[in-house]
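Meet my pick.
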Amino acid sequence: MTTEPSRATEPEGFLAWSQRAARIASDKLGRATMILDVGEVLAVTDLFVITSGSSTRHVRTLVEAIEAEVVAVGGPSPRSVEGRDSYQWVLMDYGPFVVHVFDEERRAYYDLERLWSDRPVVAWQPS
């Protein structure tokens, strides 16, 4: 099921910036990139952007590209970034949306898609 997010505020650009983050990941060969609307069940954020890289180097490339490109299109810098010490699971907290960049092993282990399988997928188009 694909839907528009519940509380993401389009006038402030958060939906567009999360979709841009997904496109950047896709352009850099991030795997199975998706956006989940978690706003109705989480008080701390509205959207999860989830993607994965094939290696820690690939994860690092994805993280750096997303951070630079979101800012380049007028978006915010992340409030915080966790996981840069190992580049196995990097969490980029933008407030209204959170970007999760996994290596494949961590993505399979934590399986956020299954954990949040009752949440709608937000539409976005690859570049």
Observations:
- DSSP finds four helices and seven strands in the chain.
- Residues 9-122 form a domain with the Beta Polymerase; domain 2 fold (CATH 3.30.460.10).
- The first helix runs from residue 14 to 27.
- Residues 17 and 34 are 14 Å apart (CA to CA).
